Amino acid sequence: MRSVVVKTLVAGMLATGLSACETMNMPDLTMPDFSMPDVFTSTPAQTVMLDEGYEFTLPEQPWADDDAIDVTQQVTANWKNTSSNETETGTFQARISLERDHARIVMIDDLGRRAIDIDWSTDALSVQTADWLPATLDARRMLADIVMVYWPLDVVRDALPRDLSIRETMGERTLRIDSNGRFYARIERPVRDVWQGFAKIRNERFGYVITIQSKHTGSSS
């Protein structure tokens, strides 16, 4: 059982579903009533290492839009086990709440245990993880992937390292490594409302696929 839970969470944290249903659990955005170790709490302009020599700079203003966003997500991750060469799958649930200058992200595992809590403001970024998560889990990398999928194009472009470029067409974003022209990631997004429906990120560099179904809280569809 422990190995299944660990696989589930490692997959989820590679980045940011399945069909959202009416019985979907909704992660609670209140701060946990138990101690979770701080990954870091510091000033804005934090960087996330995407790959060796490639740093993603999180925007100093977490969310610049006046429109608030509150969604629940069901996520499935597929990745190849390097030792067995077999494809493995994991799932988790998340809630994202955005208001001007503030972002909250909470994730729970399939057992309903609170795994990650991100509180991001213009003053600081706090990332807390449960102590039972594997040490190799990189919550900051997961946050960078969420920004790549859902944040406005100009924000993502400014955050990318110098040798990564992004192109957006209807329902798709592609990121390339400029030095060799290879794809870093391909992102599929809903056309009408990016926060309602399926999104998918295929990380070509590291060979994982994350599929997300987002649903506005209070939505019956």
Short description:
14% of the residues lie in helices and 42% in strands. It has helices spanning 2-13, 139-150, 153-159; strands at residues 38-42, 47-51, 54-57, 69-80, 87-99, 102-108, 114-121, 125-129, 164-169, 172-177, 183-188, 197-203, 208-216. The relative contact order is 0.22.
Describe the structure.
The protein is mainly β and 221 residues long. The chain has a single domain (2-216), classed as outer membrane lipoprotein receptor (LolB), chain A. It has three helices and 13 strands; from the N terminus they run αββββββββααβββββ. The strands form two sheets. Strands 1-8-7-6-5-4-13-12-11-10-9 form an eleven-stranded antiparallel beta sheet. A two-stranded antiparallel ribbon has the order 2-3. The relative contact order is 0.22. This is Lipoprotein. Residues 1-20 form the signal peptide. InterPro entries: DUF3261.
Biggest sheet strand line-up: 1-8-7-6-5-4-13-12-11-10-9
CATH topology: outer membrane lipoprotein receptor (LolB), chain A
Shape estimate: globular
Q: What structural class do the secondary elements suggest? A: mainly beta
Q: Give the number of domains.
A: 1
**How much helical structure, as a percent, in the residues?**
10-25%
CATH class: Mainly Beta
Give, in order, the helices and strands: HEEEEEEEEHHEEEEE
Per-chain topology:
Blueprint: H1 2-13, E1 38-42, E2 47-51, E3 54-57, E4 69-80, E5 87-99, E6 102-108, E7 114-121, E8 125-129, H2 139-150, H3 153-159, E9 164-169, E10 172-177, E11 183-188, E12 197-203, E13 208-216
Antiparallel strand pairs: 1-8, 2-3, 4-5, 4-13, 5-6, 6-7, 7-8, 9-10, 10-11, 11-12, 12-13
